Amino acid sequence: MHKPIPSHAMAIPQLRAVDADDLDQLLAVYSDAVTSQAGPFYQQAQIKAWSAHPYATEAVAEALRRGRALASCASGDPATIEAFALLDPIDRLSLLYCRGRSSRQGRATALVQAVEDLARQQGCQQLRTEASQLSRPLLLRQGWQLQAEERVQFAGVGFLRWRMIKSLDNQAHG
Fold it and tell me: ω into residue 89 within 30 of 0, thus cis?
């Protein structure tokens, strides 16, 4: 049974913890997010490599086993995941993805705030991540700071991303 977690944004479906049974949906959300939203920012070869990555490796499954993930689900249907965020380890925002059909609805914002609260509850004083061109603007709006720009190879294709951090004060979002 999935236990709902209160959402931080009004009119956003409640968030819930992700479990191992959700892996297939997480992979689908990951791939959909990239193929439906990356076009303006990335070349076709990058989109192809990025969207296929979770199916070509066990990286997402392994991160899910190690980390803590939350999902934003379809309204009235806690079994249908529309977006998710994963902390792996607890001080690193490892994954943040939202289906194209559910983007720009506040889901990613609610997830970021919820994982910040979760990390804070676990005693973390700071979060870190490597942000894509898709997530960097959202994270900047949420008070994250740029540390460095870096070029990396991902699935054999070059990408530009940004290392970012956020100091976690003692106040939870609410």
Answer: yes
Output the pTM of the full model.
0.88
DSSP H helical ranges for 38-171: 44-56, 59-66, 107-121, 136-141
Would you kindly state where each structural domain of the chain is located, as residue ranges?
4-124
Give the Å distances, CA to CA, from 30 to 13, 139, 148: 19, 18, 25
Q: Summarize pLDDT for 138-170 with one digit per residue, the tens.
A: 999 999 999 999 999 888 899 999 999 999 986
Q: Which CATH class is domain 4-124?
A: alpha beta
Which of these, 78, 64, 72, 66, lies nearest to 20 by C-alpha position? Answer: 64
Instruction: Compute the 3-state secondary structure of the chain and give helix, strand, coil in percent, each to the nearest 5.
Output: 35, 35, 30
- What are the tens digits of pLDDT across the range 3-52? 444 444 445 557 999 988 999 999 999 999 999 999 999 999 999 999 98
